[in-house]
C-alpha cells in the first residue's frame, strides 16, 4: 500500500529542507519510503540545498535510490560557493560526494551574502512541486521554506 494517499496533481519534482542538527526522533525509514513513493508516482527530480544535517541525509537517500531507479535525478541547489567551508571534515566529504554524484549543480551566488540561503529556498520553492521537510521549529530557514511551499499550494510531507 502506498505511503502517500490522496495526492492530487502531477508531482514531477520534490525538494528537501530540514535542520542542520538531525532530531533524534527523525524516522529515516519514513524519509526513504516517502522518497520512494514519490519517485514511483513520477516525481523523479529531487532538489537539495547542500546544508549539513537533513539536506545531506536526504541527498544520500536519493543517491541510494538512483541505483534501483536510474530515472531519478538529484539537483544540488547551492546558495553560495564555499558553503561547506565551516563544515566538520566528515560532512565536507559527504557534501563533496553528494555534489559529485548529483545530476546537476546549481550555484546561485559565487559568494555568501545575507539572504543567499533564502534565495536558495525560494529557488527550490519555484522549481519543485512538493517539499519533504524535517521541521521542528516555527522559525528559521526550514520553517520559512515550509511556509513558502504552503503559500504556493504545494504539498509538504513531514518526517
Write up what this structure looks like.
The protein is an alpha/beta fold and 159 residues long. The chain has 5 helices and 6 strands, in the order βαβαβαβαβαβ. It has a 6-stranded parallel β-sheet, with helices on both faces. α1 (28-40) links the parallel β1 and β2 (45-48). α4 packs parallel to α5 (141-151). It starts with 12 loop residues before the first strand and ends with a strand.
The helix/strand order is: EHEHEHEHEHE
Shape: globular
Main β sheet profile: 6 strands, parallel
What strand order characterises the main sheet? 4-3-2-1-5-6
- Uncertain spans: 1-8
How many beta strands in the DSSP annotation? 6
Distance between the termini: 18 Å
Q: Briefly note the structural class of the backbone.
A: alpha/beta
Arithmetic mean pLDDT: 93
Approximate helicity band: 25-40%
Blueprint (SSEs and pairs):
Blueprint: E1 13-18, H1 28-40, E2 45-48, H2 54-66, E3 73-78, H3 89-101, E4 104-107, H4 116-127, E5 130-134, H5 141-151, E6 156-158
Report a brief summary of the structure.
The protein is an alpha/beta fold.
Amino acid at each position: 500500500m502506498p505511503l502517500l494517499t490522496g495526492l492530487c496533481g502531477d508531482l514531477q519534482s520534490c525538494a528537501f529542507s530540514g535542520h542542520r542538527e538531525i532530531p533524534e526522533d527523525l524516522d529515516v525509514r519514513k524519509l526513504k519510503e516517502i522518497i520512494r513513493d514519490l519517485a514511483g508516482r513520477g516525481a523523479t527530480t529531487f532538489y537539495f540545498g547542500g546544508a549539513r544535517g537533513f539536506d545531506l541525509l536526504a541527498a544520500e537517500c536519493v543517491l541510494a535510490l538512483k541505483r534501483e531507479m536510474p530515472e531519478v535525478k538529484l539537483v544540488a541547489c547551492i546558495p553560495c560557493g564555499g558553503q561547506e567551508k565551516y563544515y566538520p571534515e566528515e560532512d565536507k566529504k559527504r557534501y563533496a560526494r553528494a555534489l559529485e554524484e548529483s545530476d546537476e549543480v546549481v550555484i546561485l551566488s559565487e559568494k555568501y551574502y545575507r539572504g543567499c540561503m533564502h534565495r536558495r529556498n525560494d529557488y527550490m520553492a519555484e522549481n519543485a512541486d512538493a517539499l519533504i521537510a524535517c521541521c521542528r521549529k516555527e522559525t528559521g530557514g526550514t520553517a520559512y521554506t515550509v511556509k513558502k511551499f504552503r503559500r504556493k499550494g504545494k504539498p509538504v510531507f513531514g518526517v
